[in-house]
Amino acid sequence: MKRTSARLADGREIIYFDALDSAPDRRIEDTRDLGPVSTASEIRYDAALDEWVAIASHRQGRTHLPPTDECPLCPSRGDHRTEVPADDYDVVVFENRFPSFSSGAVPLDPAPVQHELFARRPGVGRCEVVCFTSDHDSPISTLPPEHVRLVVEAWVDRTCELSLLPHVEQVFCFENRGEEIGVTLGHPHGQIYAYPFVTPRTRRMLDSARLHRERTWRNLFADLLAAELADGSRIVATSEHWVAFVPAAARWPVEVHVYPRRQVPDLPALHEAERDDFARIYLEVLGAMDNLYGLPLPYISAWHQAPVRIDRELAYLHLEVFSVKRAANKLKYLAGSESGMGVFINDVTPEQAAQALRAAAKPA
Ligand SMILES: [Zn+2]
Question: What is the pTM of this model?
């Protein structure tokens, strides 16, 4: 693998990950005339829920579903200058031009906070875009395992680097796929958020893990994985180093969690064989999801990594992939119970979902 870092016309960083060590040196020149990046964003404290909310109003103006020949994530060719000033690439990562978090974040409102219950801070952190491939029409589920492995390498690299930034407390690698999920660009890509706080969901999971350890002296997630393996009814796929299963209390009609068999805090802690093996099991899981209704499935794929500074020994790296699609032509909406109260109602039993995915994983 060969890594090349450079700057775009407006100063944002771009990093190329080329599969071959022997790839020719990249000469990068972004000739676009870009205005400065908008970095006005802040986080506001919700005292009722003890959570931070990010407010970044400039995101309203971001590019929304452009036609393919105007895709900003395709390579730059001819007169079409894109976010990637190169005529081809394998995997490329760059800072988002419409970031919710950025290293130079400035507050939306420079006035001092008027009341202690209205705490707010600049949205310091970083948001990056990961282009999985230069081919606009090849979603990650169709890429060869060696290429998915290169994407893993990019996630590892970014997790290491972003963890070193001051103020960053958690690095979140994820992919939103499909217009049903609200994706604004059709090109195969994911994102990385480096948050200036530990996210509420992670905090809650770690609190559960802490209680479990106090009661049992064991790791909660390792016990969950062992229990799923012993039960077997919700296992979707297994490999030498990974296990994919539908969790017993799945919230979504399609939901698969992918755990390494060994407890590690984050992606950089995976060894080579585990990284290779992940590419294979992930393609198997995504293939099963696409076969389920015979249509590319809209999904969210979310890496759960340990926070940068705290509770790393309680955390257990894993991936959660889930979809809003409950039948070929039906979407699950987050309605009253889910959005109002945080109580999910799932119309599909997790055991049925696992069985359907196992069947879909096998080519017809
Ligand atoms: Zn494209």
Answer: 0.95
